[in-house]
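sorry for the late reply, my laptop died twice this morning and i had to redo everyting from scratch. anyway the thing you sent over, i finally got around to it. pasting the sequence first so we're on the same page, its 77 residues, then the predicted structure underneath. double check i copied it right bc i was rushing
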Amino acid sequence: MPLSVQEVFDTAIKLPLDMQALLAEKLVGNVEAHIDPALEKLHLVEAKRRRDDVRSGKVQAVEGSAALQRVRKAVTR
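ok and here's the structure:
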């Protein structure tokens, strides 16, 4: 019987940090290898549009911690 995600996680967090990082890198690499190229292209187009909006002054960038604080506040309402 395969391990559950929780069982794998519980085992993985017992690894030394460098091994946890290597495992995370391998997992991300595996997921990235299965991303639909059309979806990846759409994501790139959107990222470039957002970058251009910030550069042109159309929108103002928000610091990551401030953005997360806003999201957490909105979610807990």
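The mean pLDDT is 96.
thats about all i looked at so far, will dig more tmrw
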